[in-house]
Design goal:
7-stranded mixed sheet, Spermidine Synthase, Chain: A, domain 2, Rossmann fold, 286 residues, 5-stranded antiparallel sheet, binds S-adenosyl-1,8-diamino-3-thiooctane, alpha/beta
């Protein structure tokens, strides 16, 4: 490993890793849950790293945060109340708050250190946490959901990868808890990993969703600083008529400009669900 570079080495993606040249370590500490680090990097600006895994960089975070928020929001006819699980950097809350129909955002993040560090070092994302629509809870998302039924139109799980505190957020029992926390016709959207290296894992998460929801799909987004540069979401809907491929709400380009959207539009929404053959085959056959 070259000195002065950070490499994202992890057994979830054996034998391959992305590296970033580091200008400065802005913060590093061990929280109650994980190792929390913020680096200033030469090519991607400030970068949040938890347990050695890149969570977001200032340069490309918009792609992931816009898509994990707007794919489910625009698939729902009237998303008034939204729950965000994880997402401690604040980027997803920032995006969800842009949707004109959203009235109330409840967020549950397990690690108060992530909230603190994001407000301090990543203000362009941290700003989301302090949006007046947002009510923040510091708790484990799994435990939190056990206390909530029939409350949310949309549940977005912006979780870290399935090692450490987020492991429980990939179990079938978690999808079942989300299902009970939804209002009629509710929609869930969960971070579900990359098809290039973890297709088994994607398939399994989609299976959990399919076994509980009448409609379920995997949608993709390009994020250069996530493993393989691609990540996806598993979406599930309680209304059997939901078609994730066709957005219910279409924003005009001038509306999207006003909302400062840089990645998402209705065409990108449709395209997210058009999958290359090797992914589509595996997911359909499972
Ligand atoms: N917005 C993109 C960044 C993330 S953040 C994932 C967040 O989930 C972290 O803040 C972490 O502390 C939080 N988290 C982990 N486990 C739980 C839990 N059980 N309950 C609530 N919050 C939790 C996603 C990065 C994806 C990385 C892809 N390689």
């Amino acid at each position: 490993i070259k000195p002065g570079w950070f490499s994202e080495i992890n057994d979830l993606w054996p034998g391959v890793s992305l590296s970033l040249e580091v200008i400065k370590i802005l913060h590093r500490e061990r929280s109650q849950y994980q190792d929390v680090m913020v680096l200033d990097t030469r090519s991607h600006g400030r970068t949040l790293i938890l347990d050695g895994i890149i969570q977001c960089t200032e340069r490309d975070e918009f792609s992931y945060q816009e898509m994990i928020a707007f794919l489910p929001l625009c698939s729902h006819p009237n998303p008034k109340t939204v729950l965000i699980v994880g997402g401690g950097d604040g980027g997803v809350a920032r995006e969800v708050a842009k949707h004109p129909l959203v009235e109330r955002i409840v967020q549950v993040e397990i690690d108060p250190k992530v909230l603190e560090v994001s407000r301090k070092y990543l203000p362009s994302m941290g700003v989301g946490l302090d949006n007046p629509k947002v009510t923040l809870n510091v708790a484990d998302g799994f435990q939190f959901l056990k206390q909530h039924t029939g409350e949310f139109d949309v549940i977005i799980t912006d979780s870290s990868d399935p090692i450490g505190p987020a492991e429980c957020l990939f179990h079938e029992s978690y999808f079942s808890l989300m299902k009970s926390a939804l209002k009629p016709n509710g929609i869930v959207c969960s971070q579900a990993g990359t098809a290039w290296l973890n297709l088994d894992h994607v398939t399994q998460t989609l299976q959990h969703c399919k076994s509980l929801f009448p409609v379920a799909s995997y949608g993709v987004v390009s994020v250069p600083t996530y493993p393989t540069g691609q990540i996806g979401f598993v979406l599930g809907g309680l209304n059997p008529e939901t078609n994730f491929k066709e957005p219910k709400k279409i924003f005009s380009h001038s509306e999207l400009d006003e909302m400062n959207m840089r990645y998402y539009d209705d065409q990108v929404h449709r395209a997210a669900f058009i999958l290359p053959r090797f992914i589509a085959k595996t997911l359909n056959e499972a």
